[in-house]
């Protein structure tokens, strides 16, 4: 599986900026902040899934062989 296949969809969409102070009325600011926080949570979930998948992959035999040689002093 290549990186593009595993990449969380949340990382492909542009991140909304936090609401600017004083530029909106209270309801608009709250809605904008809600969307911003929801986007941050989606990114966090996607990154967790991605890194969990990477951590679950087996260590390549070549790398394990190198580690064994280092442990043996060779």
Which class best fits the helix and strand makeup? mainly alpha
Strand percent estimate: under 5%
Number of strands: 0
Instruction: Return the domain count.
Output: 1
N-to-C SSE series? Answer: HHH
N-to-C span: 33 Å
The outline comes out as rod-shaped
- Evaluate the radius of gyration: 21 Å
Let me know the average pLDDT.
Answer: 82
Give start-end ranges of low-pLDDT stretches: none
Biggest beta sheet summary: none
- Treating each run of at least 4 consecutive H or I residues as one helix, how many helices? 3
What level of helicity do the residues show? Answer: 55-70%
Outline the structure in words.
The protein is mostly helical and about 70 residues long. It has one domain. Helices cover about 65% and strands about 0% of the residues. It has three helices and no strands. It has helices at about 5, 25-55, 60-70. The longest helix has about 30 residues, at about 25-55. The radius of gyration is 21 Å and the shape is rod-shaped.
């Amino acid at each position: 599986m290549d990186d593009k296949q595993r990449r969380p969809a949340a990382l492909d969409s542009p991140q909304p900026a936090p609401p600017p102070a004083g530029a909106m009325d209270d309801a608009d600011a709250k809605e904008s902040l809600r969307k911003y926080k929801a986007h941050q949570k989606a990114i966090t979930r996607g990154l967790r899934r991605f890194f969990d998948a990477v951590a679950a992959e087996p260590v390549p035999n070549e790398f394990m062989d190198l580690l064994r040689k280092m442990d043996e002093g060779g």
